[in-house]
């Protein structure tokens, strides 16, 4: 079976604090170098910074994710080991406690979800916890700083908080 990487070409990949931390530390890059800012629709969970009310997503290159490389029928993700949680989840989700394949038409394969249960369920749970962590950080940031500081300060804030949380888990 060949993956057509349609999802990497069609979706905007929104990221949370843990995604940004993993990519920045593993690639040795500043988060700004691979992030794109989008105007946020959710007033509470949009990041309030000098640049406006924003959400964070991966940059795109020629209409695809910046981390996708290849040509013709052969493409690959260059950050596969530490790709964002939503990429790792796709095309699965849990509904009423059961692992399901999303209705999306971009994935050409009908997966047998029972084969992925033991791998995907812990991942989806961890991803959900990481998005909750991120939402809480945004609420804290918005309460403290409102719209006075630039996006770079928000990125430093989330990087420090993820580092602290990982340290406290390992210690
Ligand atoms: S990070 Fe990798 S898996 Fe996710 S959209 Fe980009 S290329 Fe695809």
Can you characterise this structure?
- There is one protein chain.
- This protein is of the alpha+beta class and 171 residues long.
- The protein has one domain.
- It has helices at residues 6-10, 17-27, 85-89, 117-145, 151-170; strands at 35-39, 47-49, 52-58, 60-61, 64-65, 68-71, 74-77, 92-95, 98-101.
- The strands form four sheets. The chain has a three-stranded antiparallel beta sheet with strand order 1-3-2. Strands 4-5 form a two-stranded antiparallel sheet. Strands 6-7 form a two-stranded antiparallel ribbon.
- A hairpin with a 2-residue loop joins strand 4 (60-61) and strand 5 (64-65).
- The longest helix is centred in the C-terminal third of the chain and has 29 residues, at 117-145.
- The mean pLDDT is 91.
- It binds iron/sulfur cluster.
- Iron/sulfur cluster (SF4) binds next to loops.
């Amino acid at each position: 079976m060949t993956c057509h990487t349609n999802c990497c070409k069609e979706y905007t990949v929104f990221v949370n604090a843990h995604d940004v931390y993993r990519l920045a530390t593993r690639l040795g890059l500043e988060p700004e170098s691979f992030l794109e800012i989008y105007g946020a629709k959710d007033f509470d969970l949009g990041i309030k910074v000098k640049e406006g009310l924003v959400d964070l997503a991966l940059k795109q290159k020629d209409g695809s994710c910046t981390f996708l490389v290849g040509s013709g029928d052969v493409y690959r993700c260059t950050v596969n080991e530490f790709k964002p949680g939503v990429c790792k989840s796709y095309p699965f989700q849990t509904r009423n406690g059961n692992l399901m394949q999303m209705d999306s038409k971009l994935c050409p394969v009908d997966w047998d979800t029972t084969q992925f249960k033991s791998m995907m369920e812990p991942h989806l749970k961890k991803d959900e916890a990481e998005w909750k962590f991120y939402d809480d950080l945004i609420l804290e940031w918005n309460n403290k700083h409102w719209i006075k500081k630039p996006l770079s300060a928000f990125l430093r804030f989330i990087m420090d908080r993820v580092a602290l949380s990982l340290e406290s888990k390992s210690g």
